[in-house]
Amino acid sequence: MDMQRRNFLKIAGVTALAGISAPVVVNLTSSALASSDQGQTAVAHPAPSGAHGEDAPQGVRLGLLIDMRKLYGHPELLDKATAACHKVHNVPKIDNKKSEIKWIWKTPFANAFTDQSNNHASKTARENDFLVLCNHCDEPPCVRVCPTKATFKDKKTGIVAMDYHRCIGCRFCMMGCPYGARSFNWMDPQPFIKELNPNFPARMRGVVEKCNFCGERLVLGKEPACVEALKEVGAIVFGDLNDPQSEIRRILDKEHTIQRQAALGTKPSVFYIV
Amino acid sequence: MIEKALKGNSNYWMWLAFLSAFIAVGGICYLRQFLYGMHLTGMGRDLSWGLYISQFTFLVGVAAGGLMLVLPYYIHNYKAFGRITILGEFLAIASIVMCLMFIMADIGQPLRGLNMILHPTPNSMLFWDMVVLLGYLGLNVICGWVILTAERKQVKPPKWVYFFVYLSLPFAVSIHTVTAMLYCGLPGRHFWLSAITAPRFLASAFAAGPALIVIACLVMKRIAHFDAGQEAIKKLTTIIMYAALINAFFVGLEFFVGWYSNIPGHKHSLEYLFFGLEHHGHVYNNLVPFMWTSVFFCFGGLALFGYMKIKDAFNDAWVGIGCLMIFIALWLDKGLGFVMGGLVVNPLDEIVEYYPTANEIGITLGIWATGFFLVTVLYKIAIKVEHEVEG
Ligand code: SF4
Ligand code: SF4
Ligand code: SF4
User: Fold this and answer.
1) Is B104 within 8 Å of B110 (Cβ atoms)?
2) Is B39 within 8 Å of A183 when comparing Cβ atoms?
3) A137: Cβ below 6 Å to ligand 1?
4) Which helix (H) or strand (E) holds B183?
5) Ligand 1 centroid vs A105 CA: distance in angstroms?
6) DSSP structure class, residue B52
7) Inter-residue contact B84 to B232 (CB < 8 Å)
8) Among residues of chain A, what percentage have pLDDT more than 70?
9) What is the per-residue pLDDT for A55?
10) Is B188–A167 a contact, with Cβ atoms under 8 angstroms apart?
11) DSSP structure string for B310-346
12) Backbone torsions φ then ψ of A130, nearest 5 degrees
């Protein structure tokens, strides 16, 4: 196991060196217990077909599950997740709705789940905000429309990643994304970054950016920053959706979850328990 | 042949100077945008396409509109258009140049524009749009120039050029179809997600392009002794009428689908454009006056044409007014309403209205002025050649 894992890390390192900004995840793909018990490798766990209405998937597909039950009544926790993400990723704080940049933020139920709001929503749904971020769709329209492949799907992880140095800033991907997950740098972001994290590139003016599922942290064996920020309540679970043994899959198998705008066929990788 | 553009009377030079002033202002505005950033525009996180892309969309239509002159002349051998097909081709050239300028003005990293060619991505409609636009530009340059040169030498154009002429016909259709596909394949953008977008674009293009050419002909008749001929102008107004009617019919169909299905997403944009959209107690209706002006001008122009046909009255001034009304109507419909109406409700069901900034409008006017400058120079050359030949 260890040997395999190390090899896997190496591959990840190579991918990272090759300049691809979303390297491979390592230790989050299956729970440590399950994999050592069954001697599985971290790669490719074909799930039974039909699970979550999809064909038998291949390889790793990272996903994220937000258990809103643990966050109701605690808007400060939502802010904490946002702050953690925006800090490590040098997301500028621009107090202007027109030019703002956000990777993960809170919004009312009716805005997050536009197709599921109704006249008699529960008190919880009416009074709480929900966390929204890029869904790392399995069929991402943003990738489909990008004319330069600056937005692409990393086949090894399912992460929808971006190359900020290739993006021409046409904003076609922002038109394509039905979740409003993308932000454009309308101005130079540098003056709006309070504390620069030297370990993550700051963006330049004129390019698009969004949540990257913390690809840069995953290679280091760290969890996504938002997951870590809410560790105390364990509200966000991150892992391989294709691995039946992973924690996220065990919860998905047990609980009823919803996705944003599932009817559009984008196959989001972010799930919600509400 | 270029030298022909260098001789003209004082009006010609004054007009070019007038346009140059706009071009200069546009250039300065663009420099500001280039140096400081695109927050100088009215676009934002929710409304991330604006005036530039909508002008681009409209002008692709103007370029494609030349087809309505080229097709009858070359395919149906309709001789009355003999003198003006070159105008259609030259208008297409100027329009596409404007389109490319609008795209460059719109992208955040213009110096990386070549990435579209260095990393060709066939699944992106923007890639294909670039391919067909550059193709159409090239075809029109070749056809326009070769045919005009032949005319000047009073010889028949070489046979090979007809290959390019015929090739340009499907290209004209393709540029606007692919431009429509930029919009109509995006999940979650209900107003655009309609198979009628492409046909509607084509219909409005086949009215707007010829309308502009008729206006140009009428102007040139007064100031440059260039008479396109009554028959040609009459035929063009007929084409404009049908195309504008078909466009209006398609818009009507959008209304039917929206209101009869009663699906909010299909209704919101039209509601916003024509009646004002209510949201949390606030009515958003910035564009309502513009859209009703569009309706009024479209049907006003059609009525004028209809009256002239029935009475068999023909009057340059009326024709000019009718064409101008229809051109403005279609510009409001496509160059303003289509993009902004489609974006007013963002993916999170929030409403954001668009207010273009002065800097953005300066760039837009500058690019339009560049287009008019080009058209003026190209038409000047074309007319000079015709005058020489008729000598
Ligand atoms: S949520 Fe939007 S940006 Fe993220 S993968 Fe899906 S379409 Fe792309
Ligand atoms: S803005 Fe950048 S990432 Fe988005 S579609 Fe254009 S080139 Fe691709
Ligand atoms: S996964 Fe990482 S990048 Fe995405 S929202 Fe969470 S912290 Fe931000």
Assistant:
1) yes
2) no
3) yes
4) helix B160-184
5) 15
6) H
7) yes
8) 79
9) 56
10) no
11) HHT---HHHHHHHHHHHHHHHHHIIIIIIHHHHHSB-
12) -120, 150
Cα(A262) to centroid(ligand 1), Å:
12
Burial class for B357, CB neighbours closer than 10 Å (0-12, 13-18, 19+): middle
| Cβ within 8 Å of B, A 101-140 | 101, 107, 110-112, 114, 132
Distance CA A49, CA A26 (A): 24
Specify whether the CB–CB gap between B27 and B371 falls below 8 A.
no
CATH superfamily of B2-390: Formate dehydrogenase/DMSO reductase domain (1.20.1630.10)
Residues of B in contact with A178 (CB under 8 A): 186-189, 347
What is the whole-number distance in angstroms between the Cα of residue A179 and the centre of ligand 1? 7
Q: Who has greater pLDDT, B186 or B4?
A: B186
Which pLDDT tens digit goes with each residue over B282-338? 999 999 999 999 999 999 999 999 999 998 888 899 999 999 999 999 999 999 999
Residue whose token pair is 């015709």: B386
- Domains of chain A (ranges; CATH) run 3-45+58-273 (3.30.70.20)
Q: Which residues contact A72 (CB under 8 A, 6 or more apart)?
A: A124, A128
- B331: its two tokens: 């510009």
| B370: three-class secondary structure by DSSP | helix
* pTM, two decimal places: 0.90
* Sequence ranges of the domains in chain B: 2-390
Q: Which of A33-47, A80-94, A136-150, B325-339 has the lowest mean pLDDT?
A: A33-47
- Looking at this predicted complex, what is its ipTM? 0.92
Rounded Cα gap, residues A106 and B203, in angstroms: 43
Q: What confidence score (pLDDT) does residue A166 get?
A: 96
Residue among B168, B184, B179 nearest B204 (CA): B179
| Residue B168 near residue B90, CB atoms below 8 Å | no
Please answer yes or no on whether B45 and A177 come within 8 Å at the CB atom. no
Read off the tokens for A247: 């924690």
Sequence letter at residue A241: L
Contact A77, A235 (CB under 8 A): yes
CA–CA dist A73, B99 (Å, integer): 51
Between the CA of residue B340 and those of A52, B200, B278, what are the distances in Å? 37, 17, 17
Query: Residue with structure tokens 């859209």?
Result: B291
3-state class (DSSP) for residue B258: helix
- C-beta separation of A235 from A251 below 8 A: no
DSSP, res A223: P
Closest C-alpha to A157, from A10, A23, A16: A23
pLDDT tens digits for A111-132?
999 988 777 888 898 899 999 9
* A205 at interface of B, judged by CB pairs closer than 8 A: yes
In ligand 2, which atom is closest to the CA atom of B115? Answer: 7
B282 phi, psi to nearest 5 deg: -115, 135
